[in-house]
Give the backbone structure.
Amino acid sequence: MVNKPETVYTVDMIIQKIIDDEKQYDLSKIMTSYEFAAKAHANQVRSSGEPYITHPLAVSFILLELGMDTDTICAAMLHDVVEDTDTTLEEIKKLFGQDVAMLVDGVTKLGKIPLFTKEEQQAENVRKILLAMSQDIRVIIIKLCDRLHNMRTLHFRPANKQRNTALETMNIYAPIAHRLGMRTVKDEIEDLSFRYLDPYAYSEIESMLEKKSDEREAFIESIKKQISERFKEAGFEHSPQIDGRVKSVYGIYKKAFMQGKHMDEIYDKYAVRIIVDSVYECYNSLGIIHDMFRPIPNRFKDYIATPKANMYQSLHTTVIGREGIPFEVQIRTWDMHHTAEYGIAAHWKYKEGISGKDKLEGRLAWIRQIIEAQQDTDDVEEIVRTIKSDLAPEDTFAFTPKGDMITLPIGATIIDFAYAIHTQVGNKMKGAKVDGKLVSLDYQLSTGEIVEILTSSDPNHGPNRAWLDICKTNEAKSKIRSWFKKERREENIVQGKAELEKEFKRNFIRVPDEELANFLADDMKRHHCATLDDFYAAIGYGGVILSRIMQRLKDKFAKHYAVPEIHEAKPSAAPKKSDSGVIVEGQNNLLVKFAQCCNPLPGDEIIGFITRGHGVSVHKKDCENYVNAMNNGSEPERWVNAWWANSTKTNNSPIFRVTLDIVSKENILIIADITKVMAELHIPLTDISVRMLKNGNANVLATISTAGVSQLNNIISRIKKLPDVISVDRSGK
Ligand code: MN
């Protein structure tokens, strides 16, 4: 903006501005609105002591500078009369027409929305602003200019009001101005707010800029001169306009203070802007610049091919000048330049307003998205957070393989991308490829990447609760949550229970049903589950990851259930190291233990594992641990060949423990029958238990001691002959 904050606007300035402007205005309608407003505000003064009418005049002037239309100027002139005087909306409608009345009404309503109230109220109010914007974008443009003038004159207001107004401007209005692409307005209200929010930093940066201003100007002048001389040789039809430019105070603050960088590190502190006639000339200019100066890698951005969400387009590159000083170069066409400076207002200034609704659609899509995303949540804090984060200035643009652009906030992951395409794509996602390479779910997308979402055809496939911590957008979060909400709890419980039982069986954990809740109490508490069903449900939807808790449960089980029972009941101690009956290749005096996971018996094919400090542990060759280790290729050198010694094969003492997993039809004598078989065969029985299965069958687990596989096979075939027995398995395969 050209005018100083202190400028007091007069009606003569307005008239002169309208006469000088290329644009056609209805001067008499604007003058009528001025006279009407001047009369209505006649007795009012501002905090500055000036007549009140200077404020509507100032707002109208700013809107004229933006090139807005006659009705917008009239509405600006009248924007405070309904609120502050006896004037009614009806009068305005009669005198100035429906459009002006609607705009005044919109601005009046916006003015009544207090932004810094309770959080819940604040969310609702921001929602109202967004709704007002989606009805006629001119309402918010007037409001932004109203706020701009109020910020320029904020020093007249009481100190306690200054900070709140500045905060509201910084948090709500500046992001909106940014999203509408109105850079000139945004930069100015940001700098003005910043001055009140952090006066110390503001004056520090300001004086730093002033101190170096001569140096800076000399540098930029020399760069401009070099570039324009080179461009003369290049034969452009019109010679490009070359401007030197300094970032806004707040822009420097954001880079320097928030990123903890020193002023010298801020590359684009020096910036040169080149404006040309066509897109072709933009790329041509870029080539010349890169030929003249050395470009800094990874600092080139093509916002022409990929415009920002607010429609900003330019080529950005950072190069190093002959003096070794880096500077940013922005290259754009005049059309892009107007959009970059005025954003949506450029439509009125340079493009005869917004004619069709079509052009507005894209601009307003994000407003609708925010409003829609909010309908699903009652969490007020979240709404406010969303609005702030969705209004955050930077965006990432990634593409589908077909070339559709998806706009996401910085830091968004492939999960956000999937849900941005479609809810079902998100729910069915099992992974993604970025630029052809598989990536992890927390991969953060960068602009320009092509993302292919891989989906599962399994109808039961859905999101994982852990995604909530990974994804960034509110859209993805609310969609994931509603999936869990809708998914039937019963299914989660059944699935979770089955998973837990399977894991328990695999790890030989057997806890009586009545003790299960107690056994799991710690983990239930940790996952905020009040009942076992809650816990099963949590396992079912992935809130509790079994692999993460199994080790703890195994330890707990060993401590409380398994160990004492087995040791006390053991008929004879495990083979001693000297006479373990196992020969381990290359090892003579190592302690040999039999692995608990598979309990190998003489006759089984076995393999040894050299443990760290506890000798050799002997596994069956078909033990899951061995098979997995071979498949994973982990520490193959620690697995060594092992055989049963001959003496063991002929030795018939029943010293090897094994558990039989027996299923039979319901039969109250089943335990008695099994015990009888063991007694007849002189097989020590150390533990026997039975539980009823859901289908009415009985499941008996019997732990016995045996001399080896052949004896065991004999035992198994004897049990199989018992009436009602369905199956007998050696547990731990
Ligand atoms: Mn006002």
Notes: The mean pLDDT is 80. The pocket of manganese (II) ion is lined by residues 55, 79-80, 146 (CB under 6 Å). Residues 656-730 form a domain with the Alpha-Beta Plaits fold (CATH 3.30.70.260).
